[in-house]
Amino acid sequence: MRAQIAAANWKMNLTLKQGEELLDAIISQPTQLQSHQSAVFAIPFPYLTMAQQKLSGKYQYFVAAQNCHNKKSGAYTGETSVEMLQSLGVNYVVLGHSERREYFLESNQFLAEKLDICLANGMHPIFCCGEPLQIREANTQNEFVAKQLEESLYHLSADEVQKVVIAYEPIWAIGTGKTASSAQAQEMHASIRSSLAGKYGDEVAAKISILYGGSVKAANAVELFAQPDVDGGLVGGASLLADEFVAIIKALK
Ligand code: PEP
């Protein structure tokens, strides 16, 4: 079975103490993950070591960064390289979240460079894509997302692209409490998979995990994750509440 992933995105929230308490509350609850399931925590940079220590040895629990730089090293004040993350034992990174696209002007081309440096160094990227409200209202969301994939991903080889986890996050559903219906999520995930199949073939497309993000919570996770092309979720707000996020982990198929 394809990898099924519950990914928490803490964004720029919590103090160190609050982060420690949240992780303690989550890992104290049994989730019995199977080998195709995982829980990934995208943690603010200053707390990565803390999270790495707390989750080490916890089966199928992994730490992710929320971003990395597109260059190997050098005079890029304030930035964090792939090599730095890996020196902490962090092997996952979220790329292209809509907040980074909007506030830090990250383009599809720039994200293609970040994907390259991650894949060249064995880092697992969680690549975010998704349309704003006006595109959904114009019913051109499938083309919009296909273009994001084309411009950031489709220069990759078939071997490389299989190492990417895709997170479809309609921008109108992020942090708004407005979730895409399970039918809307399935329709877009099937469209993404069909675009991947057009470029890389059915066999490769079938192996790529596609997460849904946008107001996922315990109350809707089971129905969303039950969709055949939804392979888990990228979760913001609800990942800051231990019981909510544990229930979301347990909703993985
Ligand atoms: C996100 O941060 O990627 C996200 C989907 O946030 P929320 O779950 O709060 O909508």
Characterize the structure shown:
With 253 residues, the protein is of the alpha/beta class. It has a single domain (4-250), classed as Aldolase class I (TIM Barrel). 43% of the residues lie in helices and 15% in strands. An eight-stranded parallel barrel has the order 1-2-3-4-5-6-7-8, surrounded by six helices. Helix 1 links the parallel strand 1 (4-9) and strand 2. Helix 1 runs parallel beside helix 2 and helix 7 (141-152) crosses helix 9. The mean pLDDT is 97. Phosphoenolpyruvate (PEP) is lined by residues 9, 11, 97, 169, 174-175, 213-216, 234-238.
Set out the fold topology.
Layout: E1 4-9, H1 16-27, E2 37-42, H2 48-55, E3 61-65, H3 82-87, E4 92-95, H4 98-103, H5 108-120, E5 124-129, H6 133-137, H7 141-152, H8 158-161, E6 165-168, H9 182-200, H10 202-207, E7 210-213, H11 218-225, E8 232-235, H12 242-250
This protein binds phosphoenolpyruvate (PEP).
CATH homologous superfamily - what is it? Aldolase class I
CATH class: Alpha Beta
CATH fold name, please? TIM Barrel
| Secondary structure category | alpha/beta
How much helix is in the residues? 40-55%
Bound ligands, each once: phosphoenolpyruvate
Uncertain parts: none
Name the CATH architecture: Alpha-Beta Barrel
Q: Tell me what portion of residues adopts beta-strand conformation.
A: 15-25%
N/C terminus separation: 10 Å
SS summary, helix count: 12
Count of beta strands: 8
For the record, the count of structural domains works out to: 1
| Main sheet characteristics | 8 strands, parallel, barrel
The shape, in one word, is globular
Mean pLDDT: 97
Please tell me how large the radius of gyration is: 17 Å
- The main sheet orders its strands as 1-2-3-4-5-6-7-8
Taken in chain order, the helices and strands follow as: EHEHEHEHHEHHHEHHEHEH
